[in-house]
Amino acid sequence: MRLQLWSRSQRGKIRRTIEGLGHVRGELWRYSIICLVVTAVSAWGVWEFDSTHDVPALIQAVGTLVAIVLAVALVDIQHKLEGRSAQQERAQQDAILRRALSIRLVPELRLLHNRCDGVRDLLSAVLENSGSNNVLSYEQTQVEIPPFVDQTWHTLHVLGAKTSDRLLNCCAQLSEMNRQFATKFPQGVFIGPHSKELDWIRSQRDHYARQFEDLGMVRQEIAEWAGHQPAA
């Protein structure tokens, strides 16, 4: 039983070593060629300029030069293998964090996406029925940004630059729109058929529509990281 376990362990180590060497095969080929060149040139040089043609001395001199090249090659290849191992470990850690963040963000983004959709529809209805009197308040147009996004913004990069940038940009845009409405209409606003605010409401509606589309793409990408499809 111990022999069997040892054999499996050894086979695993050998396999990982071979896989690691496969990633630095370019360096192996390069240093192999360098060794051949150093061997040929140094052997020719010593033989050509040493009139004694002392074979043991020739072998020792060539061996010393080749040993230097091999020492440099060993350090270089080891450094690259360690760097690759560290990179793989970081990638594994990022994958774990990405999945954990995605699972946590799925319900948050569903609420944010749906709320953005609701405000967009509300403003569309106001514009389509501008002949009727409408009253808009801050509570009706406010889109609450998930606190979790603010708490984890510094780790969202593991979702990918495109996804994290789009998510953070959406949240920043929606926060600014909340601020603009609260500043412009702290007590709400009355929208009549000839209201001078109709153009501003239309631009806000279009802005919400753009954020809704971007959030839809973010939801899809994060749902894939989380391992399921987003609910409607």
Widest sheet: strand order?
1-2
- What do the pLDDT scores average to? 81
Query: How many DSSP H or I helices?
Result: 7
Strand content: under 5%
Give the termini separation: 54 Å
Cα Rg = 33 Å
Structure summary, number of beta strands: 2
Instruction: Specify the helix fraction band.
Output: over 70%
Order of helices and strands: HHHEHHHEH
Question: Can you summarize the main beta sheet?
Answer: 2 strands, antiparallel
Shape: rod-shaped
Written overview of the protein:
This protein is mainly alpha-helical and 232 residues long. Helix content is 79%, strand content 3%. The protein contains seven helices and two strands; from the N terminus they run H-H-H-E-H-H-H-E-H. It has helices at residues 2-23, 25-49, 55-128, 138-141, 147-152, 161-184, 198-226, and strands at residues 134-136, 189-191. It has a two-stranded antiparallel sheet. Helix 3 (55-128) crosses helix 7 (198-226) and helix 6 packs antiparallel against helix 7. The mean pLDDT is 81.
